[in-house]
Amino acid sequence: MATVGGGAKPSTCVFCEIARSSASTTLLHEDERVVAFQDIKPAAFRHYLVIPVEHISTVNDLKRRPEDFSLVSHMYDVGRTLLRRDAPQSTRYRFGFHQPPLNSVNHLHLHCLALPFTPRWKSIKYFPLGPLGGFIEVEKLLQRLKPLSALSSTL
Questions:
Q1: What is the mean pLDDT of each run of 10 residues along the chain (155 residues)?
Q2: Is 14-146 assigned to CATH 3.30.428.10?
Q3: pTM of this prediction?
Q4: Which UniProt keywords are given for this protein, alphabetically ordered (predicted)?
Q5: Where are the domains of the chain?
Q6: End-to-end CA distance of the chain
Q7: Angle CA(135)–CA(140)–CA(146) in degrees, nearest 5?
Q8: Distance CA 43, CA 13 (A)
């Protein structure tokens, strides 16, 4: 698997293992770019993770370029489709990424949550923490990644 951001892929990346061989994990979605599955420690009524097949360590490895914008957009589309299918009764959803140093696995993963949080106290893990990073909503990350050519055409 390719690596971006200049760092070497960890030899025991659990998410790379899931993306390569889902023998121990039931996949909710699989295509050439991403896979999706249930979080093993769900924090909400429905809690899915969408990960790229390619090893990308964290949101800090993403740049303002079309391929990164496209990947995150695709991850978001997959997550929304799954939650709309599996939790149509939910009226609130959250989609985002933990930022270093508060990410639990060094493989990019989009949290897709159909609320409410269960138990309620788990919501604390899914809020932005200003300069400390914390959780970044997918829409905010997409704004940060939008290629400059797309920005200038909207001005």
A1: 45 88 86 96 96 96 96 98 96 94 90 94 85 88 86 53
A2: yes
A3: 0.88
A4: Hydrolase, Nucleotide-binding
A5: 14-146
A6: 38
A7: 135
A8: 22
